[in-house]
Amino acid sequence: MPAPLLQLHDVSLSFKGVNALSRLSFSVGQGEICALIGPNGAGKSSLLNVINGVYRADEGDVVFDGARFEAIHPYKAAHLGIGRTFQHNALFGRLSVVENVLAGLARWGRATFVENIFRVGRDGAERWRFQARAHEILGFLGLERHAHTVVSTLPYGLQKRVDLARALVAWPKLLLLDEPMAGMNQEEKQAMSRLIADVNGKLGTTIVLIEHDIGIVMGLAHHVVVLDYGRKVGDGTPDAVRENPDVIAAYLGTVH
Ligand SMILES: Nc1ncnc2c1ncn2[C@@H]1O[C@H](COP(=O)(O)OP(=O)(O)OP(=O)(O)O)[C@@H](O)[C@H]1O
């Protein structure tokens, strides 16, 4: 395995007696695409929330890029290089695509988000740097021709791509994607899967993603971690995980 970028050690989290995560340990190597799979309620979203500081683990710790934390604020996580998309659309529907992408840089500069999108304010050089970065990412994700389209008027598949652009614009080392293909048809899933592979292959971004479509996971991920009731029941290459009897019993066996 490549050198780890992210390591979890004995991470536990509970909600009023429900164990969402139980002594969970695993590592994600630099440059990997790691998929988290498991049945509904297995703890996948809770895990992403611990990694980027939305939840604080009850026990255990996380090591990211060589630095250990028990709790971290989401803004701090973003500054350290942990980007995130959400399961449910969290875009500003009435703003344009490029304005939404600029929102991903809102906490990076000296000017405010409002100053940046209305192109006013203190730091012209920074404003142009951010605009250039936003357009670079839009170009990379094939969204440039939609840059000035109001987000709510775009088809769902493209809105998910804008969400990816917003997470990617702030130079993340680690990108956490919470069901980036949820609600998509097969063609849209294939297109999103190719984009994620490009982000990983061409930008070198390490990716942890939650995905329910096993066919997509097996084709896209280098590494699969399987959760069941907050516990890890599988951890390895897609082929190794597919043949693991515990995984078949806990999860893969239940999808047919
Ligand atoms: N904010 C919360 N308050 C109370 N319980 C929660 C909360 N978030 C998650 N849980 C519980 O923790 C467990 C793990 O939930 P989580 O959403 O992390 O699972 P998941 O694998 O992401 O599920 P899904 O595939 O349905 O999104 C579940 O039992 C869930 O009900």
Automatic annotation (TrEMBL):
Cellular component GO terms, alphabetical: plasma membrane
Molecular function GO terms recorded: ATP binding; ATP hydrolysis activity
Gene3D superfamilies associated with the record: P-loop containing nucleotide triphosphate hydrolases
InterPro entries tied to this protein: AAA+_ATPase (IPR003593), ABC_AA/LPS_Transport (IPR051120), ABC_transporter-like_ATP-bd (IPR003439), BCA_ABC_TP_C (IPR032823), P-loop_NTPase (IPR027417)
The name this protein goes by in its record: ABC transporter ATP-binding protein
Residue ranges constituting the ABC transporter domain according to the UniProt record: 6-254
Alphabetical UniProt keywords: ATP-binding, Nucleotide-binding, Transport
SMART domains: AAA (SM00382)
